[in-house]
Structures are given as structure tokens and as C-alpha cells.
């Protein structure tokens, strides 16, 4: 879910949205999530609203509070109707979602009140004076769910909505939060739509790049083979300092390559692989309304360039594609200095280069989820950024060295992973989206159905409908509406 901002590089994991409502630039801050459209008559929708939250919901002795941002659209609300709560994710909450998106079409039909709550520590929702390691201890999915519970309870009482049925919506990480909100607080939320939700935490996530391979191969079987050949050539040249000047020129890097450790070369390789990862994740998604750029670059465009022999050998095509991305995002060059990345991510100021969401989200991957999209599988086109590359970032940025295996196990114990057990959650996923590998793609029970949409990417069902949408995408949206209609009648 997302909006548009500076170019974030290498913020491992779920992208996800939205930031869900967030900032999409070309090397997605973790590869994210959010979406939608209608002819809504919006009154308060673009105005910031504020809600008082506790800093620590789990320590009664800590009485500190802060202001959390939210948005409201009551254009479609009919007395007695449901309340739709869109959950913000790893970036600024985008008020465009209060005017666009499939969820508003559902709201129009069902007479729902629509709310969007920004996630703590993202956007303008600043619980602490800065993003120091000591303050980031209050950033977690558990605290975010408690925020949702308190917001729902107080808002219902103030607005006379205590007897209304609440439905949680979210895409990507917020999709997981939507499912977990229903799981952990079933007395507060009646149903949930958990789109592209990676509900299973895992330290190492090489399957992400395996799906990238398959998605490229679905366009043309030769495409991922050429990408692999180009990547392998680059890896070989990075072992020879005599090639550094040419590589710097070929890819228009901002400064000459300096490789003093494996982290330096891994950062270069992941940055360039990110061109493919981001395009595949959001392939043909209708997210321009969020302010997202580069939506014209699709899998078809990527493979078209990789198959174009007039551009030179596969390595030269790989470089030409990076230059195309620079032009698309109005970038004069690509910064591939790992030390610069660490410096940016270590800045604890709210005005720092990572404060839009990068520093916060990578912290969450280091302390809850993992989700590291490594090259540790042979069944994918890239190499050079193994799991250890991501784990080292946790140490370099936050001085964290505890076992992520134990932390991720705790997360899955908390929420159930793939084996979530509750009722009235629908799990939409797209076959092209690499995140579906950590989601629910088959029905768990009749009341926990999956909607697996062939040929679509990350959170596609949340975005505004358009004539060129695949028929199965329209059918998926209709199916989700029928489920909501049925559940709200229960």
C-alpha cells in the first residue's frame, strides 16, 4: 500500500503497500502494497484527523501517549451500516485511498463508513521524538494491533457504532494485520479482507526470486535465462577491479565502484536485481492514482529489452534496462555505495532519508518477520546477495545480533502462520506476485477462503477497476463482495 517519495533502496521485505499507502519508487522499500476507486463525495477524507494512543499498550505503568493520524469518509454511510477500517502499513497513509479503490465500491453498495488508520511510526504518526533504537522497541505488529483495537473501541463509542459490524481491509503487511486483527480481537472485528498478506514469517525467503523467475518465464521462457546470464557476467566482472570504471559507466553509477567487502558487491547486485523484482511485484497494477511512477514498465517491457539483440549482449541489455529505469524515475545516476545506505538508514531523525519508512520497516524485518529475498535458491536468475547479506544489515544499522530464527518462530507462534484459525477472513493473492508464496492460496475452511487470481500481481484486487483488467480479476472482486455481503448478514 503506498504513495510516492524519494527512491528507497534495499529495504528488504514486503515491500510491500502499500507502503500500502505509501511511496513507491523503483527499488521498493521492501516491495509493498494498497489500492482503489469510486465516485466518492469526500468531505473530511483528505483532512488529517487525530486519535490519542498509548505508547505502550502492554505496560500499565507507562502512561505516555501520542497522536495517531487517521482519515474518514462518511459519503456512503447509512445508519446501521458496517464500518470499513483500512489498515495503514510501512509508509505514510495515503488519503487517495479515501477517494479511490475497490473497497469504496463495496462501501457504496453496503452503506459503510470508511476509516483509514495510519500505522504507528510511519507517515505523520510519530509516537516518539526520534527513531532511535530505544524508541523503535515500541514499533511492532503487536503494538499496531493494540492501536487498532483501542481506535475501534473508542471510535465506536464516540460515533455510536458499538453495534455496527466492523470489517478490516489491508494489503501486503497491512493485509496480514487485517487477518491478525480478526484473529486476536474477534469481538471487535467481524470480518477481514487480507489481500496479498504474507501471514507466514520466515527468515530466509528465496522463494520470492523463484516466483520472479516463473513470472518472467511466463512472458518468454528465454527471458529469465538471459537475465541470469547478464547477472552472472556482472558477478564475474565485479571480481576484477580493472572492470570497475566500465561497469560504473555502463550502469551510470553515481561514483566509481568501491568493493571492500562482500556487502559492497551484494548491495550493487541487489540494487540492479531490484529493477526486476519491483516490476514483477507490481506488474500492470493500476496504482497511478497513488502517485506511483514507472507503472508503464511491465514484465513485457523488461523481457522485450532482454530479448533485444540490437542492444548488445545480455550484460549490455541489463545495463540498458537500468538506464531506462533511471530515465523513468528522473534519476541522473544510481547510488550503489553500501556505506551511504547504512549511513542513511542509521539516521534517527524524523527528517532523515530513511524516515519515510525504510528505517522503520527494516527494523521490523530484523525483529519480527525476516522476509529476506535472498539468492540462496538455484531456481532464480540472480546471485550475490545471500541471507547473510540481510542479516548483516540488522547488525550494521541497529546493532542487532540475536537469533532471527527464534524471533520469527515467536511471530508464527503468535499468529499461526499458514495455520491461522478463526473465521470470516478472505485471502486474495495474485499468481505473479512473489509474496503469494507466504500467503494463503488455498481454502483453509469455508469461512477462511482463498482467492487465487491467475496472472495478477501484488494487491491487484484492491486497485481501481479498468477495462483492460483480466476477466478473472473482475470475478475475484465480485467474489470478495459476495463474501462480505454474506458475512455481514450473519
From TrEMBL:
<dbReference type="Pfam" id="PF05577">
    <property type="entry name" value="Peptidase_S28"/>
</dbReference>
<keyword id="KW-0325">Glycoprotein</keyword>
<dbReference type="GO" id="GO:0070008">
    <property type="term" value="F:serine-type exopeptidase activity"/>
</dbReference>
<keyword id="KW-0732">Signal</keyword>
<protein>
    <recommendedName>
        <fullName>Serine protease K12H4.7</fullName>
    </recommendedName>
</protein>
<keyword id="KW-0645">Protease</keyword>
<dbReference type="GO" id="GO:0008239">
    <property type="term" value="F:dipeptidyl-peptidase activity"/>
</dbReference>
<dbReference type="GO" id="GO:0006508">
    <property type="term" value="P:proteolysis"/>
</dbReference>
<dbReference type="InterPro" id="IPR029058">
    <property type="entry name" value="AB_hydrolase_fold"/>
</dbReference>
<dbReference type="InterPro" id="IPR008758">
    <property type="entry name" value="Peptidase_S28"/>
</dbReference>
<keyword id="KW-0378">Hydrolase</keyword>
<comment type="similarity">
    <text>Belongs to the peptidase S28 family.</text>
</comment>
<dbReference type="InterPro" id="IPR042269">
    <property type="entry name" value="Ser_carbopepase_S28_SKS"/>
</dbReference>
Amino acid at each position: 500500500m503506498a504513495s510516492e517519495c524519494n527512491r528507497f533502496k534495499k529495504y528488504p521485505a514486503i515491500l510491500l503497500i502499500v507502503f500500502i499507502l505509501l511511496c513507491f519508487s523503483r527499488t521498493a522499500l521492501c516491495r509493498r502494497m494498497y489500492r482503489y476507486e469510486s465516485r466518492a463525495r469526500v468531505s473530511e477524507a483528505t483532512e488529517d484527523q487525530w486519535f490519542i494512543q498509548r505508547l505502550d499498550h502492554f505496560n500499565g505503568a507507562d502512561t505516555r501517549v501520542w497522536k495517531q493520524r487517521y482519515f474518514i469518509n462518511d459519503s456512503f454511510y447509512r445508519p446501521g451500516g458496517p464500518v470499513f477500517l483500512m489498515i495503514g502499513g510501512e509508509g505514510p497513509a495515503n488519503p487517495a485511498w479515501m477517494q479511490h479503490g475497490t473497497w469504496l465500491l463495496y462501501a457504496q453498495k453496503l452503506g459503510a463508513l470508511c476509516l483509514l488508520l495510519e500505522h504507528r511510526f510511519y507517515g505523520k504518526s510519530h509516537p516518539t521524538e526520534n527513531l532511535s533504537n530505544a524508541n523503535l522497541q515500541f514499533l511492532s505488529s503487536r503494538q499496531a494491533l493494540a492501536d487498532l483495537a483501542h481506535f475501534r473501541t473508542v471510535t465506536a463509542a464516540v460515533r455510536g457504532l458499538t453495534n455496527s459490524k466492523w470489517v478490516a481491509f489491508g494489503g501486503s503487511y497491512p493485509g496480514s494485520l487485517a487477518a491478525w486483527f480478526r484473529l486476536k480481537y474477534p469481538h471487535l472485528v467481524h470480518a477481514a479482507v487480507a489481500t496479498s498478506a504474507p501471514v507466514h514469517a520466515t527468515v530466509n525467503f528465496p522463494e520470492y526470486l523463484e516466483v520472479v523467475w516463473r513470472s518472467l518465464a511466463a512472458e518468454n521462457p528465454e527471458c529469465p535465462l538471459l537475465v541470469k546470464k547478464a547477472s552472472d557476467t556482472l558477478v564475474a566482472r565485479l571480481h576484477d577491479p580493472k572492470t570497475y570504471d566500465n561497469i560504473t559507466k555502463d550502469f551510470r553509477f553515481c561514483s566509481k565502484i568501491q568493493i571492500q567487502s562482500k556487502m559492497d558487491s551484494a548491495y550493487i547486485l541487489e540494487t540492479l536485481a531490484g529493477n526486476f523484482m519491483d516490476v514483477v511485484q507490481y506488474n500492470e497494477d493500476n496504482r497511478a492514482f497513488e502517485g506511483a511512477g514507472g507503472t508503464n514498465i511491465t514484465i513485457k517491457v523488461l523481457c522485450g529489452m532482454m530479448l533485444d539483440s540490437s542492444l548488445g549482449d545480455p550484460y549490455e541489455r541489463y545495463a540498458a534496462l537500468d538506464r531506462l529505469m533511471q530515465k523513468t524515475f528522473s534519476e541522473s545516476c544510481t547510488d550503489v555505495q553500501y556505506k551511504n545506505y547504512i549511513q542513511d538508514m542509521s539516521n534517527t531523525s524524523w527528517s532523515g532519508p530513511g524516515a519515510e519508512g525504510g528505517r522503520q520497516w527494516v527494523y521490523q524485518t530484523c525483529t519480527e518477520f525476516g522476509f529476506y529475498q535472498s539468492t540462496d535458491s538455484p531456481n532464480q536468475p540472480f546471485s550475490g546477495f545471500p541471507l547473510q547479506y540481510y542479516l548483516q544489515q540488522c547488525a550494521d544499522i541497529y546493532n542487532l545480533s540475536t537469533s532471527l530464527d527464534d524471533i520469527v518462530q515467536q511471530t508464527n507462534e503468535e499468529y499461526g502462520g499458514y495455520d491461522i484459525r478463526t473465521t470470516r477472513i478472505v485471502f486474495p493473492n495474485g499468481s505473479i506476485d512473489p509474496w503469494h508464496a507466504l500467503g494463503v492460496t488455498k481454502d483453509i475452511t469455508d469461512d477462511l477462503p482463498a482467492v487465487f487470481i491467475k496472472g495478477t500481481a501484488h494487491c491487484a484486487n484492491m486497485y481501481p477497476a479498468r477495462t483492460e483488467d483480466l476477466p478473472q480479476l473482475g470475478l475475484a472482486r465480485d467474489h470478495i463482495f459476495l463474501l462480505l455481503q454474506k458475512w455481514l448478514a450473519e
